[in-house]
Amino acid sequence: MGTIGIRGLGKVYPGGTRALRDLDLEIADGEFMVFVGPSGCGKTTALRMIAGLETIEEGEISIGGTVVNRVEPRKRDVAMVFQNYALYPHMSVYDNIAFPLQCEGRRKQEIKERVEEAARLLGLDELLKRKPRALSGGQRQRVAMGRAIVRKPQAFLLDEPLSNLDAKLRMQMRAELSTVQRTLGVTTVYVTHDQVEAMTMGTRIAVMRDGLLQQEGTPELVYGR
Ligand code: ADP
Ligand code: ADP
Q1: Which ligand is nearest to the CA of 20?
Q2: Rounded to an integer, what distance in angstroms lies between the CA atom of residue 219 and that of residue 32?
Q3: How many angstroms is it from 121 CA to the middle of ligand 2?
Q4: Ligand nearest to the CA of 191
Q5: How far apart are CA 34 and CA 201, in angstroms?
């Protein structure tokens, strides 16, 4: 299933910056793992390496038991959501969410069922005909998540997805996202610099500093609550 194994992972960027050093982490199927730490500690680098967006020269990553070091991003069965969700402005919400399935050449009826299922889960049922410009920031972020989950990937990767939202909406979206993750049971890796976010959302937390894994455990263990 959607386990993620990270063994001895390191990263030195061209130019010589060391972003990661000897990272070891096993992420269980269905777990909500948060990478937390100050800016520049290597969180995004680790996530991008899982996604296949950075090459792996040191160590190994496996997804669902298969080593993916040399597997290209679109064959990794992961979906990534960024801070700046790039929706297609000329397409409706329905078509934005449907797009990955259309690319896979799925049948119309299957696409319709899966888009409607994702929309229901994210509370977008009433908005399927709208264009992105007619949506609020939170609604747009939900569409971006819909587009990510509609393929039912083995892993869901999120990089500071809520940081462009105002504080109130951010709190609401945290709760929603946790619910969606639990409902889907999809293995999730979530990057944030926000400790409160890490604590309220993660089932497990990896605290990073200067490219090193400093501490790892449940929120209770890491933050002593
Ligand atoms: P975080 O997500 O925790 O803010 P990053 O993984 O983005 O940290 O960055 C870790 C380190 O690697 C930082 O020193 C950053 O400046 C550097 N870095 C990130 N991306 C690149 C890149 N494409 N080229 C060179 N250095 C990079
Ligand atoms: P048909 O081929 O019978 O016309 P499709 O299901 O292929 O219908 O949908 C055609 C287009 O209609 C889609 O690309 C989408 O833009 C829109 N659409 C389909 N179902 C919905 C829905 N539940 N809500 C909003 N738009 C929809």
Answers
A1: 1
A2: 11
A3: 18
A4: 1
A5: 8
- What does the pLDDT read at residue 224? 84
Which residue reads 């669902």 in tokens? 64
Q: Identify the residues whose C-beta falls under 6 Å from ligand 2.
A: 92, 94-95, 108, 112, 116, 128-129
In angstroms, the CA 193 to CA 163 distance is 10
Task: Give, in order, the Cα–Cα distances in Å from 120 to each of 132, 150, 184.
Answer: 18, 12, 13
Q: What ipTM goes with this model? A: 0.75
92-103 pLDDT, tens per residue? 999 999 999 999
Residue 82 binned pLDDT confidence (cut-offs 50, 70, 90): confident
Q: Would you state the torsion angle of the CA atoms of residues 150, 194, 165, 88, taken in this order, to the nearest 10 degrees?
A: -30
111 Cα to the center of ligand 2, angstroms: 9
- Contact at 8 Å (CB) between 109 and 87? no
pTM of the model: 0.88
- Nearest-Å Rg of the Cα atoms of the chain is 17
Ligand 1 binding pocket, CB closer than 6 Å: 13, 15, 17, 19, 37, 39-45
Nearest by Cα to 50 from 15, 92, 16, 11: 11
